[in-house]
Amino acid sequence: MKKRIGSFSKLSLSMMNIMGKLLPSCDEVSRLTSKAMDEKLSLREKIGVRFHLMMCKWCRNFHKQMHLLREVIHKGSNNPPESKKSSLSPEAHQRMEEEIKNNH
Amino acid sequence: MKEQESIKHKFSDPEKWVELYGDYLYRYAFMRLNDRAIAEDVVQETFLAALKAHQNFAGQSSEKTWFVGILKRKIVDHFRKSSRVDTTDDITKYIQGKDKEFLISGIKPGNWKTGQRPADWMVDTTDNVEMNEFWEFLKACLAELPRRFAVAFILREMEELETEELSNVLEIKPTNLRVLLYRARKQLRRCLEINWIGINNKTKK
Questions:
Q1: What residues have CB less than 8 Å from B43, skipping those under 6 apart?
Q2: Nearest C-alpha of chain B: how many angstroms from A25?
Q3: How far apart are CA B144 and CA B137, in angstroms?
Q4: Which residues of B touch A58 (CB under 8 A)?
Q5: Do A99 and B31 count as a contact with CB atoms less than 8 A apart?
Q6: DSSP letters along A60-79, please?
Q7: Does the distance separating the beta carbons of A70 and B44 come in below 8 Å?
Q8: CA B165 to CA A29: how far, in whole Å?
Q9: Cα separations (Å) of B140 from A15, B25, B103, B121?
Q10: Residues paired with B102 in a beta bridge
């Protein structure tokens, strides 16, 4: 019994070693997650990222956050939030109206 | 199609422009430039450029969209000039620096370090209070980045410039731009996690 567990864990260890060599690390996956937002990944890169994400919660969080940021920023950047401080100063307002008048 | 063509947008009286669009254009510019004086200058330049060019206004888009189009170019021009002038901002230093978030040795090199692991964000993007806070923290976090990181991020994510154009504007190689954007995103993520989401992994070590 003990022997079997031993050989099993040996097998899974060597499997993990092989996987570890084939799959990109968190370091690489977060880099590739960013890269994928700007350009196309190669097939190898895509597969590596996909398998890594299936197994790694931290990189899944990273991946989700990158896409959340993009979505929120894209949506908001054309509708800048209004607040009290977010309008032209009266001086600038007046200056622009005069400039337009003079150049019109 | 024909119906669409017939809807031509009218050009309004230039003397009403500031009243109609001034504040919107200002907010748009300020969000990206984060400086009142510069944002106001850029808006003024936009109005003056519009005056010169308003014969070319085809009426295909709304007047507001047309102004935003001019403003966008002015903003990109501003960043192009400012990144050229700012020689103190040594890009190679940032590009060559190592990523400190990951383990270098041990059984799992390349894994997230304990205090650096991205947390599970519970965010409700429909919550206005939360989202207003988001923009405040984003502004603060952008201000903490090295200047070129912030500019690259703003032009890519807010202005949605393609990377080819962006590397021309910043006058850096595409491979360096890739590093720049990655580091900007990574640092912003971390800053927002600590300040906006309110999770500080450091204390939970």
A1: A88, A92, A96, B22, B25, B26, B29, B71
A2: 5
A3: 11
A4: 112, 117-118
A5: no
A6: HHHHHHHHHHHHHHHHHHTS
A7: no
A8: 25
A9: 45, 21, 28, 19
A10: B112
**Which amino acid type is present at position B131?**
M
* CB A64 within 8 Å of CB B123: no
Please tell me what DSSP assigns to residue B56.
S
- Contact assignment for A96 to B182 by CB distance below 8 Å: no
Q: Two tokens at A48?
A: 């590596």
Residue B185 has what pLDDT?
97
Pull the structure tokens for residue A35.
């890269």
Question: Alpha carbon of A18 to those of A12, A21, A44: distances in Å?
Answer: 10, 5, 16
Of all residues in chain B, the one with the smallest CA distance to A62 is B118
Exposure string of B3-25, with b = 16+ CB inside 10 Å and e = fewer, is eeeeeeeeeeebeebbeebbbbb
What is chain B's percent helix, strand, coil content, to nearest 5?
70, 0, 30
Hey, what amino acid is at A80?
P
Q: What is the pLDDT along chain B (205 residues), one digit of tens a residue?
A: 444 444 556 678 889 999 999 999 999 999 999 999 999 999 999 999 999 887 777 667 788 999 999 999 999 999 999 887 766 556 777 777 778 899 998 888 899 999 999 999 989 988 888 888 999 999 999 999 988 899 999 999 999 999 999 999 999 999 999 999 999 999 999 999 999 998 765 444 3
**Tokens standing for B51?**
């005056």
Backbone conformation region of residue B106, classed left if phi is above 0, alpha if psi is from -120 to 50, else beta? left
> Looking up tokens 């912003």, which residue turns up?
B188
Q: Quote the CA–CA distance of B174 and B106 in Å, as a whole number.
A: 33
Cβ of B18 within 8 Å of Cβ of A96? The answer is yes
pTM for this prediction: 0.86
Comparing CA positions, the residue from B175, B174, B185, B187 lying closest to residue B100 is: B187
The DSSP line for A11-51 is: HHHHHHHHHHHHSPPHHHHHHHHHHTTTSPPPHHHHHHHHH
Q: Is A69 on the interface with B (CB under 8 A)?
A: yes
